[in-house]
Please model this.
Amino acid sequence: MPRSDYLQSKREAKKARIFFEGTKYNHRHASPHVPWEHKDKFAVIQSLGRVQFATYGYTPNIDTHDKPWQLKNKVRAGALVRFATRCRKECINEAGWRYGVEARVFERFDIEVAW
Model:
């Protein structure tokens, strides 16, 4: 995004009273508001946030044979993106695209998971 577009968007957000917290969590310099017993969990969440879509499910590692579902998840995510893009191009209203997208997202939670 060109700088002028960014500044224009920032002005519009300010006018609409939309504000963003500029401080991000960093496990090395943990906020005093995070209890010590949760700092490890926050570190794991941060590492998950650094996972790249391009390499997810394709990078062989020691856990690959234990996680065959990773590639299937990536395929599902790609199909979901294509569906959402089609809804946007067809100018489907929010209720319409949410109905279609949410069903596809939540179907994963209906599947029994074996541990």
About this structure: Residues 70-115 form one domain. The mean pLDDT is 78. The two ends are 44 Å apart (CA to CA).
